[in-house]
Amino acid sequence: MAKIAELKAREILDSRGIPTLETTVTLDDAKKATSSVPSGTSTGIHESVELRDGDASRYQGQGVLKAIENVNTVIKKNLLGLDPARQTDIDQLLVNLDATKNKSNLGSNAILSVSQAVCKAGALAFNLPVYEYLQKKYQLHKDSPAIPTPTFNVINGGKHGAGNLDFQEFLIIPSTRMTYSQALQTGVEIYHAIEKVLINHSAIHSVGIGGGFAPNLYKNADALELIIEAIRTTDYKYGEDVFLGLDVAASHFYKGGKYKIKDRKEPFSTKDFIDYYKDLNEQYRLYSLEDPLYEDDWKGWSELTREIGANTVIIGDDILTTNKERTLKGIEEKSCTGILAKPNQIGTISQAVEVISIAKDANWQIIVSHRSGETNDDFIADFAVGVGAHYAKFGAPARGERVAKYNRLLKIESEIAAKTTEQKSQSRKQNQQ
Ligand code: PGA
Ligand code: ZN
After folding, report:
1. Each residue's pLDDT tens digit, 389-415
2. I need a surface site. Which of 152, 201, 351, 395 has the fewest CB within 10 A?
3. Element (H or E) spanning 200, and its range?
4. 263 & 207 share domain
5. How many domains does the chain have?
6. Residues 204 and 275 both lie in one domain
7. What is the CATH number of the domain that holds 386?
8. Helix (H, G, I), strand (E, B), or coil: what is residue 406?
9. Can you give the pTM of this predicted structure?
10. Ligand 1 neighbour 153 (Cβ under 6 A)
11. Which residues of the chain have pLDDT under 70?
12. 372 CB less than 6 Å from ligand 1?
């Protein structure tokens, strides 16, 4: 049995240039596991709370020295000597030490950095890759591991883009029939085709924080048109090889009970907005629709799911926040048909796994997601495979911190293929004996 011999956190930067934590667990045989935590920009109001220093003299108050102090003192004192394989017990201990409902005391960033590093250390102690360790430990899927279908965020708006679009993410989703490497190639080739189309249209663009292009367009729906135009310049067929999805992140333009977007002068009531989505869906056959309505509008969500949920995956992100109680309510009220699972919304690995398990039992689609503020840590790729996610959302197929995750999935894909070949040849040998 391995034991935690040392625990140490330090301050590093995320992809937005904002401080975050990197934590290292050292085991008693000197093996080390290091992990860093991501952070959201368009965070839901029901997420666990990150601890930021609030000291205006450093990083505009965004420093995480207090969170680091919490890891290096109170958390460390309680974890030394424990077996890192006891993930669920350790996570419960962290929850108890914090003793708030939203982890605001020690900080969800401090807690997750430890939970994630402990998970990596547990895998290391068993000499297993993290995805296999998680699969064996939690058994959320019984078949051999599979790579989730990647969903690529190719155009960024809202809080993620410097352009003028209200919707946060315009996604392309390759067919689930493709292997992961085919799907990745598809995403990359269309991403580059979109760049050309935007240049041709003189839609001046920068790149948003998820790596997608951030153009200035007349309407949000124009971005969908441009993506389809780009797909048509490639060998891929829209509606067959590749589909469209949206993460609207609607809470961010919900004011005074109405939705205000550039596609219409008058703000939309909930009922009008649902009708708008029905029209959009008829035109574009949306494959998935994330956060279409305000994060506490349970009634509206149920109605929208009733209207279009049979053919479009309605994904709950800010409404669910990877939170057990909210997910149970969403299942009860038939609010969605899929969950965007982000471990840092809840703050520990085993709590995120529990929520995914509940969503799976309800036959929901599982989309494991990065955050807009990322590091080069590729833990989330292993996590997505380990819990048997159907889809992975890691941003655009560009920029180091996004590509790190897509590249990790390529490696896992080849490891799984090698293992399957080996198993087949072994069973052939056994049959011949
Ligand atoms: P965030 O955005 O990481 O900025 O919260 C991601 C999302 O809304 O899916
Ligand atoms: Zn979202």
Report:
1. 999 999 999 999 999 999 999 999 999
2. 201
3. helix 180-200
4. yes
5. 2
6. yes
7. 3.20.20.120
8. helix
9. 0.98
10. no
11. none
12. yes
Judge if 9 and 114 occupy the same domain: yes
What span, in angstroms and rounded, lies between the C-alpha atoms of 295 and 45?
8
pLDDT at residue 428 in the model: 87
371 ligand 1 Cβ < 6 A? yes
What pLDDT score was predicted for residue 59?
98
Asked whether residue 179 falls in the same domain as residue 103, the answer is no
The pLDDT value recorded for residue 142 is 77
CB 137 within 8 A of CB 126: no
Residue 423 lies in a domain: no
Ligand nearest to the CA of 14: 1
- Does the C-beta of 251 come closer than 6 Å to ligand 1? no
Q: What CATH number has the domain bearing residue 63?
A: 3.30.390.10
Clarify whether residues 54 and 175 are in a common domain.
Answer: no
Per-residue tokens: 173: 């989703």
Tell me if 155 CB under 6 Å of ligand 1. Answer: no
* Predicted pLDDT at 204: 77
Domain contains 105:
yes
Per the structure, the complete domain to which residue 22 belongs is given by 4-127
Query: Given this model, what pLDDT does residue 18 score?
Result: 98
| Phi, psi for residue 329 in degrees, rounded to 5 | -65, -40
Q: How far is the CA of 147 from the centre of ligand 1 (A)?
A: 22
The continuous run of DSSP H or E covering 20 comes out as strand 19-27
Among 105, 127, 149, the domain-final residue is 127
Q: How is residue 305 written in tokens?
A: 């799911």
* Any ligand 1 atom below 6 A from CB of 380: no
Decide whether any atom of ligand 1 lies within 6 Å of the 41 Cβ.
yes
Domain membership of residue 353 (yes or no) is: yes
Same domain, 376 and 338: yes
Q: Quick one: DSSP state of residue 59?
A: G
Nearest CA to ligand 1 atom 6: 371
Tokens of 382: 């292993």
At 433 the pLDDT is 77
Distance 15 CA to ligand 1 centre (A): 13
What is the predicted pLDDT for the residue at 250?
98
Could you tell me if the CB of 317 is within 6 A of ligand 1?
Answer: yes
Determine the residue type at 291: D
Whether 44 and 180 map to the same domain: the answer is: no
Q: Among 127, 152, 174, which residue terminates a domain? A: 127
Domain contains 66 = yes
* CB of 210 closer than 6 angstroms to any ligand 1 atom: no
DSSP conformation class of 250? G
- Residue in 293, 317, 372 to alter for ligand 1 test, most ligand atoms within 8 A of Cβ: 372
**Which ligand 1 atom is at minimum distance from the Cα of 370?**
3
- Pair of tokens at residue 295: 């994060």
Q: Does residue 233 sit in the same domain as residue 199?
A: yes
CA of 133 relative to ligand 2 center, distance in Å? 28
Across the beta sheet with 32-36, the strand order is 4-13, 19-27, 32-36
